[in-house]
User: Fold DUF676 domain-containing protein from Stentor coeruleus.
Amino acid sequence: MLTQIDILLFLDCFRNIDVFLQGLYYLQVKISENAVPYFFDSILGSKKFHNLYPPQILDDAYATKIFLLKYAEEVVKIMETVVFRVEIDPNAYEFNPISIQFELMFTDLKGDLSPNSVQNYLTAPPAESLFTKVGEASFTITSVFTGVNQMIYATYLDTFSSSLDVSVHIFPTNYKFTQDYIEELFPDSADSIYEDKINTVFDRIVLPLGLCYNKLAKLLYPNDESALISLPMLHHSDIEPDFIHKIINRSLFSRSIGTKVKTEVALALFQEIQELAAMILSLKHDFIEYLKTNPGKIVHKLMKEYVTLMDDRWGENIIRETFNEKIPIYSGNKDYLIDIETAKKLRTGANFEILDYFHVVDNKLFKGADENTILFETIFSKEKVNNPSISTVSNTSLSKSRHLIVLVHGYLGSYIDVKMLQDTISNVYPKGIFLLSRANEGSTNGSINDMGVRLAQEIQEFLKVNSSIHIEKISFIGHSLGGLIIRAALPHLAAIKDKCYSYISLACPHLGCLNNESILVDAGMWILCKIKQSLLLNQLVLSDAEDQRHSIIYNLSKEPGLGWFKKVYFFCSSQDSYVPYHSARAEVGSSIIEGNTIEYEMASSILSQITGSFHRVNTIFAVPSLEVSSLIGRSAHVKFLDDLQFLNILVFKYIL
Assistant:
């Protein structure tokens, strides 16, 4: 027996987050296991250059309409429905699940995008396509038999940073019997069937169709309980009755049919299958028609569910403690390397193996259990900390008020370093606008104070140029040295202090780079200070003044600014030896005596300013221990910017 599955995809919007190249684009969709597209429909948009060539089926793939991308942050309304069909063996699905690929195709017509060139290409395309694949997003379908209605986001990074939002709807529509249905339903059975056997077959074959119907009906008619069908009480207690949504007849199926004769029971089951299959096909037709006129309602509902699920899912990666007390400066005797071992145990435990928040899983985000990034968060707040309500994802509409997020790179870096973070935030947070700082590119060997002045001037100019935009709040995210540059800029930005919302530092040496845990890095810093005569490096080790209490880092600890923020986050990593662990947390480790020391005084000055909630977050990445970069602590330092799972946790749990 094979299960016939229909996979309906509604391709809503394609958004150019930061695509560098103008040109012609389309999306090509493929589904594994010999799935073939057999139906498609589209809603024609109003912009002609977004509808240059109609969608089409290409053998076993589906190609969307061809559109021209011309502008930054451009939104293309795809608005296309395609249905694939596949037949699968339910007994083998666990070992060979279905996957979906969304390929981003591009051509710039060899540099000639003039209207005549575009028209000539579309009218008489050459035998060999000029399009090439420039991005791919893949998803695995983990469950198909009880129906799926879920939002997914196909994201493309780097040069072709963009996203496609898609609603996925999966229906088991019928069963294909390879031999006599009586023998397939009850192989090797006597002429009289036991009640348990009847109900087991019902639960395995008929019930999934009913569940699928009710899930789709509830999505299509959310306020109409009469649209749901009644199903017999489940035979197996491991399936929660809540999934049925509505149960009127509480008798088991075996009792409701009033017979145990094999042929009669098989016929009753077969008739149930045929009736439910016809109902699903009819409802699917209604759903496709509804998508033509009201796709926004479906997409919006599934988007809200997606954001809630993502927030819950990433919560599994965070071990959190909350204290309603003064922020401690001294770390006590806790061995910060213990978190690394705890993370290893969590990854090898059963917890991450059984997480099933999504039925359609993004393969870039969710890999093996041993690849999870684990965060150990300690919160200090005078008030009870609640999870904030999360802004609804929407690629098509923006509220009038905006949230400015300033991203600042580190030593010898550039704005490109923080672009992946911007792309990740942009994908799910349309309220955000971004300033990727470029004021200090090529100048990070100078004084931290000068870098702070340049950043402040850059922010002031940005606000002046964008004065027509209502900026409701401003957040800052700085990687490594970038966190210090932000703090050095704040004294020059007092005019915006009422809008300051969150300050996030990622592996920032708030107390400088004294007492580095890595001998290699410590020695390297000393050599660089001697050879390069770098003012910055001397400032980081507090050797820019004879008296360390006159050094830039020490004086910076007394500057105002952090007290303006409602939330302050200091991210660090026990695996990062580039920036001392305790320096990134603004605390004094057990190796330093509590009291009158430079580190203690700086930490005290920094922490005494904070009036909002304060979060110290130790981030443990899944870093191969034999990597050369991990041996010297570089890998973890860089992963704050390029670990996709961490960036998503940061967005959903700390930025939205």
